[in-house]
Amino acid sequence: MRLPEIDKWLDSVLDLERYSGSDPSRNGIQVENDGSDISRAAFAVDASLETILRASEAGAGVLIVHHGLFWRDPVVVTGAHYRRIKALLDANLALYAAHLPLDAHPEVGNNAGIAARLGLIDLESFGEWRGVRIGYKGVFASPVSIDEAVRRLFPDGSKPLSILPFGPREIHSAAVVSGGATDEVHQAIAEGCDLFITGDVSHEIYHACLEQGISVISGGHYQTETVGVKLLAERLGRETSLDTVFIDVPTGL
Question: What is the CATH number of domain 3-99?
């Protein structure tokens, strides 16, 4: 496939235009290739130098990431930014970024994917950020413990960064916003959720959660945002001729 065909497929699935006024990311193609055919697409959370080099070594012609290199403010092409772009150009490796569209997507998004792992039903949109709702909330068919919620969140046995076990022992409802969504816990409290799941949280919410009786799982910014890129890779592989590979560069954060 050529890059314009891949771009068209991704745009049709992710509906980038919906988030153009609210997302600080420059979603879509951020760096082109020379127009040659692409047979393999690499997927990753971050467009780091290590990710770029490993995607190139894997024979990818395009790297599709959640966190790209270009955001709303202009960035000079010097230092680490220069080295990343040079590595892309040297490898003839295109770069495509999808930030909020990959958080909010109802099928291949980070939050829908986490909700599915948890087994939440009766899903509703949740977590307003910059005028759009990017998360999901729902209920469990049968109540679960905090340990069971963690087991479902990380079926591979990974561990969360931290847990605030301040909610009811039997958890009936949960809200999910991946990544750095500390403040959205207040929305979860206001909407009566027993559990809030996000990537990373700050000290400031501790006492509010304790006093309001809500549990929080901080699953890790990186870990909670591997979900969407993997789901998108699976769908791209099913619906196109492209081979796909996931580049895992965990940060522990």
Answer: 3.40.1390.30
Query: Is 7 annotated as contributing to ligand binding?
Result: no
**Is 124 in contact with 94 (CB distance < 8 Å)?**
no
| Residue 147, marked binder | no
Is 81 annotated for ligand binding?
A: no
User: Would you say 105 is a known binding-site residue?
Assistant: no
Collapsing DSSP states into helix, strand and coil, what is residue 75?
coil
Q: CA 236, CA 231: separation in Å to the nearest integer?
A: 9
* CA 94 – CA 33 distance, rounded (Å): 5
How many H-runs (helices) and E-runs (strands) does the chain carry?
10, 11
Break the chain into its structural domains and give their ranges.
3-99, 105-221
Banded model confidence at residue 131, pLDDT cuts 50, 70, 90: confident
pLDDT tens digits for range 10-32: 999 999 999 988 999 999 999 99
Give CA–CA dist 41/48, Å, rounded. 16
In this chain, the answer to whether the domains covering 3-99 and 105-221 adopt an identical fold is yes
- CATH number of the domain at 105-221, please? 3.40.1390.30
Confirm or deny that 67 is annotated as ligand binding.
yes
pTM of the model: 0.95
**Mean pLDDT value across residues 57-74:** 96
Cβ-in-10-Å burial (0-12, 13-18, 19+) of 106 comes to exposed
Going by C-alpha positions, the residue among 160, 116, 170, 154 that lies closest to residue 138 is 116
**pLDDT single digits (tens) 206-220:** 999 999 999 999 999
| Tally of CB atoms within 10 A around 47 | 24
